[in-house]
Design brief:
Strand order of the largest sheet: 15-16-14-13-12-11-10-7-17
CATH architecture of the largest domain: 2-Layer Sandwich
Distance between the termini: 48 Å
Number of strands: 19
CATH class of the largest domain: Alpha Beta
CATH topology of the largest domain: Transcription Regulator spoIIAA
Number of helices: 16
Radius of gyration: 23 Å
Largest sheet: 9 strands, mixed
Number of domains: 2
Helix content: 25-40%
Structural class: alpha/beta
C-alpha cells in the first residue's frame, strides 16, 4: 500500500488526483493526515508545501522538487508528487501532472506548447494538441455573446444499456411506461420556465441518453414544444443527439428538417459490429452507414459521429479502422473519446484501466487516428479529460472548416450560462473574474437525477431554476 502524508497543506483532492493516475482508486484518510492507494507499491511519501510556495515530496532516501518558476500551491504539490511517482513507478503520463478536466484552460495561460512540456511534463504531442485546441475553443467562444444562454434538454433513456455507460440513463425496454410521462413532464417544465427567459439563445442541444428513443409522435411533440416556447433565432445553433442508428427513422428526420434542424449526431462508437453486440448496443455498423447516408440525402449537412477508443472487445488497431471508415463517410465532425470508468457503469475498472502496462498500443492508435483525421482536413476544436480514462488519454472533437459545435465549447468552457431541462441536468451561471478572461466563478443548480422523481416534482424543479437565474 502506498501512503502519502500531507504536510503544510490540506489539498487531499489534488493528491488523490495524482495518485489515481498511477495507483488506482485512492482513499482519503484525513483524520490520519494522509491519502493511501491500496493497489500501489509498498512505500511511504511525505508531500510538503512550504510557506514560500515550494513543494517537496520525500521518500526515506530521496527528495523531489521542481527547480524553476513556482506554480500556484495546488499545482505545485501535484507537480512534486508527480515527479516522485513517475520515478518510483517508471511511468510517464501523456498529460504529465495535469489532472483537471480542461488542459486547454492551462494552455491558454502559456505562450507556447513548449511551456506545457517544461512546466507540467506534458508530452510534446499532447502539449501541441492542447495549445492548438485552446486557441480554436476561444475563437468559437467569441461567437457566443456573454449575455446569451445555451439550453440543454435531456432525455435519459436508451433502447438498451451499454456496458460502458456512465450516464444517468435507463434501458427503455424496462421503463416503457415512464417514457410518455417523462416527455409530458419535460414539456411542462419548458412551458413553466420559457416565459422567464429574456436572453438571446445561442445554442440548443437535445441530448441523452438517446432523444430519438421517443416514438415519432412524442418526438415531434417535444420539438413543437421547444420551438413554440423558446425564442430560437435563425442563427441559434440547434443540435439533436440522434445517437443510436436503431432509433433514427425517416419520420424523425423529416420532423427535424421541418423545424430547420440540420445539426445532428449519429454515434456508432465503433464500426465493428462484433464489438457493438458485445457492449450491448442493438445496431450494426451497416445500420450506421445506412442511416448516415439517409440523413445526408435529406439535407443534414452538419453531422457529428462519435467513436470510443479502448473498448475491451476490440484491438486498438480496430479503432483506427473505425476512424478510417468514418473519414470515408466524411461527416462534418468526428469526436474521439477514450473509454473511461465511472461508478455507475457495469463495465469493470479492470476492463477500462490497465495500470500494469504503459498502454502504448492504445496510445499510439489514438495518435494515429488523430493523424488520419488531420490529414483528411479535420482539426481539433474542443477537448476535455475525465478521471479513470484508459491510459490517461482524452476526448477530442474534430471539425472540418468552421463547423465546430459552439454548444460543446460554451458548455465545457464554464464561461457561458447553461439552462438544463430534464432529469439529471445541471444548470449553471458563470461570472467573469477581473483579470481572468477565461476563468469564471460558476454557480450550479442540479436537477433530480431519477426520472420518476423528476416527473413527480417537475413544478418544483421549474421554480428552483427560475429563482436560480433571477438571483
Amino acid at each position: 500500500m502506498l501512503e502519502v502524508f500531507l504536510k503544510g497543506h490540506d489539498k487531499y483532492y489534488g493528491v488523490s488526483d495524482v495518485l489515481r493516475m498511477f495507483c488506482g482508486v485512492p482513499e482519503e484518510r484525513k483524520e490520519e493526515g494522509k491519502v493511501v492507494a491500496p493497489d500501489g507499491p509498498d512505500i511511504r511519501l511525505v508531500n510538503e508545501l512550504f510557506e514560500d510556495g515550494r513543494s517537496v515530496t520525500r521518500t526515506d532516501d530521496r527528495e523531489y522538487e521542481f527547480k524553476g518558476e513556482l506554480l500556484e500551491p495546488g499545482r505545485e504539490i501535484k507537480r512534486s508528487l508527480y515527479m516522485a511517482l513517475s520515478d518510483i513507478t517508471s511511468k510517464k503520463m501523456p498529460w504529465g501532472c495535469l489532472t483537471g478536466i480542461r488542459p486547454t484552460l492551462v494552455a491558454l495561460e502559456e505562450e507556447s506548447s513548449r511551456a506545457l512540456e517544461e512546466r507540467y511534463f506534458v508530452r510534446p504531442d499532447k502539449a501541441d494538441l492542447a495549445f492548438r485546441t485552446s486557441r480554436e475553443e476561444i475563437r468559437l467562444l467569441s461567437k457566443v455573446p456573454e449575455d446569451s444562454l445555451s439550453i440543454y434538454v435531456g432525455i435519459p433513456f436508451c433502447p438498451s444499456r451499454c456496458e460502458y455507460c456512465s450516464f444517468v440513463s435507463s434501458d427503455i425496454s424496462c421503463h416503457m411506461d415512464r417514457l410518455k410521462n417523462y416527455e409530458a413532464a419535460l414539456e411542462r417544465e419548458i412551458e413553466l420556465i420559457a416565459s422567464s427567459i429574456n436572453r438571446p439563445l445561442a445554442a440548443l442541444y437535445v441530448g441523452g441518453g438517446t432523444p430519438t428513443v421517443l416514438d415519432e409522435k412524442e418526438f415531434a411533440s417535444l420539438l413543437d414544444c421547444l420551438y413554440s416556447n423558446l425564442k430560437i433565432l435563425p442563427d441559434s445553433e440547434v443540435t439533436v443527439e440522434a445517437g443510436r442508428p436503431d432509433t433514427i427513422t425517416a419520420g424523425k428526420l423529416e420532423v427535424m428538417r421541418a423545424h430547420g434542424i440540420t445539426r445532428i449526431c449519429i454515434n456508432p462508437q465503433t464500426m465493428r459490429t462484433e464489438t457493438l453486440i458485445s457492449v450491448g448496443r442493438k445496431h450494426t455498423s451497416e445500420d450506421t452507414v445506412n442511416v448516415y447516408r439517409q440523413a445526408c440525402d435529406m439535407g443534414f449537412d452538419l453531422i457529428n459521429m462519435d467513436l470510443i477508443a479502448g473498448l475491451p472487445y476490440e484491438t486498438p488497431e480496430e479503432h483506427v479502422r473505425s476512424t478510417e471508415k468514418l473519414i470515408e463517410l466524411a461527416p462534418a465532425n468526428i469526436t474521439v473519446h477514450t473509454l473511461y470508468k465511472k461508478r455507475r457503469a457495469a463495465m469493470s475498472r479492470e476492463k477500462v484501466m490497465d495500470h500494469g502496462s504503459t498502454g502504448r498500443g492504445l496510445d499510439d492508435c489514438v495518435a494515429e487516428s488523430y493523424r488520419l483525421l488531420e490529414e483528411a482536413g479535420y482539426h481539433p476544436y474542443y477537448m476535455y479529460r475525465q478521471k479513470d480514462t484508459g491510459h490517461g488519454l482524452e476526448n477530442t472533437g474534430f471539425a472540418k472548416g468552421d463547423t465546430g459545435s459552439i454548444y460543446n465549447v460554451a458548455m465545457m468552457s464554464d464561461c457561458r450560462d447553461v439552462l438544463s431541462f430534464g432529469a439529471g441536468g445541471m444548470s449553471k451561471r458563470c461570472f467573469a473574474q477581473e483579470g481572468e478572461p477565461y476563468k469564471h466563478r460558476v454557480e450550479r443548480c442540479p436537477t433530480i437525477k431519477d426520472a420518476l422523481t423528476y416527473i413527480e416534482r417537475v413544478e418544483e424543479m421549474a421554480e428552483k431554476k427560475i429563482a436560480f437565474f433571477e438571483g
